[in-house]
Amino acid sequence: MRVAIAGAVLMMAACERVQLLAPTNSTITVSAPSRVLPLGGTTDVTAFVAEQGGTPVHNGTVVRFTTTLGSVNPVEVETRNGIAITTFLAGNTSGVAEVRATSGGATGATSTTGTGTTATSSTTNVVQITIGAAAVNTVTVRANPGSVPPGGGTVELIASVVAENGRALENISVTFNTDQGTLSSAVATTNSSGEARTLLTAAQKASVTATAGTKTSTAVTVDIRTGPGITITCTPAAGTGNCAAVQASSSGNTATVLFTVSKATGSSNLRSASIDFGDSTSQNLGNLAGNATVSHTYTGPSSTAPRSYTATVTATDINGETTTSSTIVSVTPRATVTPMAITLTATEGTKTLTTARWTFSADVTGGGEGGTGNAIIESYTWDFGDGNTATTNGKSTSHVYQKSDTATNSRITVTVTARTADGRSVTTREEIIVTYSTT
Description:
- A hairpin with a 4-residue loop joins strand 35 and strand 36 (about 425-435).
- This protein folds into four domains: about 20-115 and about 120-130, Immunoglobulins (Immunoglobulin-like, Sandwich); about 140-225, Immunoglobulins (Immunoglobulin-like, Sandwich); about 230-330, Sandwich (Immunoglobulin-like); about 340-435, Sandwich (Immunoglobulin-like), CATH 2.60.40.10.
- Helix content is about 5%, strand content about 55%.
- Strands 13, 15, 17, 19, 20 and 21 form a six-stranded mixed beta sheet that branches. It has a five-stranded mixed beta sheet with strand order 2-11-8-4-6, with no helix packed on it. Strands 23-29-28-25-26 form a five-stranded mixed beta sheet, with no helix packed on it.
- The protein is mainly beta.
């Protein structure tokens, strides 16, 4: 009796150690809800095991899972209603994993996709899962904004990475390449939206591509926006030439120049323009629909060295782009001026019992620039001493005295003031005795 019991126990233990496997001619069909995974991603892998007649194998049938890339956990799973489920872990290596399920004599059925020369055969006990960059089907890149200012600037580069089914791929390494400028980072990783971002700083037209896995995007061009074309030129207000050496006036120690500001033909329309004269003053020029001519007076130097000013025009177009253009005005010291002197000559003329004619002439010497020569007199103001005055352009004049206004043998003081065009003046006086005829 004891021997029989011991034998039964040994038989039961042996049965517990033997795995229940699928019988011969059974089939296994493997599937996965996610066939594309990022690095480190996971998905369930399901094996359905059926006997030859199509009914599920017995519960507890052991199915073994293997993979060519990544890992599965657990490796062995017992069926329930013919189904065994394990978890596939993608790992950190890109590629295509083939996850296979086996059990006893079960095999995978043959599945054919397509027809003729395009037909593809596969077995149902293997499922392929694409991992990381191996899943990349398309890479596109764009720039925001699509251009930089005339002087250069920074744009954001955005690469979009998708799989064959259009699904955005996360955690994919993207390499950016540019033929101009510098990248804040040449390599970036896609986010949950499948986008990788970096910054490009460029001062020239640049061509940019993005590469993920074995796919490279079509190049996108980051252009340089054209700023408004603007020029400024300078000429002396008097005379010809440029403003490289404009002599200050002798009297006021100032120099007046003319600026011409022009918008280039074909340039974008301006929103505003202004000129900074370089002496802490400026002037608004509006939208500068045409050329503008602006007069400005500068202060000359207080020493023997020239005094320079930089005049700058700033123009902003309707696109918000700004351009500047400058020119230099150099004011040289004023010339040395000699003092002016004036001599008044009075000549008695014809006279009657009641009238007496006198002729006066004023000669001005000195006052010329450069230490020599005479100043140019613009006008002469005469006070004849009898309450009458006159202004002439010439240096000579005459006056008839009336006896009713003066006594015989009257002493009269005649005054003349000569004025130059730049505002300087000189005055002199002469005393004469006015007499009348007695017969």
